[in-house]
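Postdoc handover notes: sequence design on the structure in folder B. Input tokens:
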């Protein structure tokens, strides 16, 4: 993958590939193969994010419960990263994935009074305090 321009770092059986401000993580299996354990994602301050499609906008979710609006440049870089890493690994790209950014989390059809009616609570976003 370095020959394809990816920055690759390995520590203790975990390999991380980065390019365009995006990354993916692989772990070595007992039969000496690698399994992608973190799918291609946008990195924020070196940390993986999850892409959330809230129905009206896409957001980046962090492990500590914060959310940030995803912008077009970030989505373009993630799509490019995903295409290039799949090509480098010889993994096929399926039709629905080639159409655009696929989200790890989607919340649609929210109905007041039913589970999921408050989108931020549904995905674990913490309320902002001090504003």
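Designed sequence:
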């Amino acid at each position: 993958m370095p020959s394809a321009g990816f920055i690759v770092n390995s520590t203790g059986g975990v390999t991380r590939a980065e390019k365009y401000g995006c990354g993916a993580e692989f772990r070595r299996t007992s039969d000496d193969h690698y399994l992608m354990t973190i799918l291609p994602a946008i990195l924020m301050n070196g940390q993986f994010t999850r892409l959330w499609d809230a129905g009206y906008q896409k957001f980046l979710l962090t492990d500590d419960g914060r959310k940030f609006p995803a912008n077009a440049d970030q989505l373009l870089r993630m799509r490019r990263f995903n295409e290039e890493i799949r090509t480098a690994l010889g993994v096929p790209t399926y039709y629905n994935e080639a159409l655009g950014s696929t989200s790890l989390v989607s919340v649609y059809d929210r109905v007041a009074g039913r589970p999921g009616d408050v989108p931020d609570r549904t995905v674990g976003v913490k309320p902002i305090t001090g504003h």
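Context for whoever picks this up: Strands lie at 7-11, 14-19, 22-28, 34-44, 47-48, 50-53, 58-61, 67-69, 105-106. Don't rerun without checking with the PI first.
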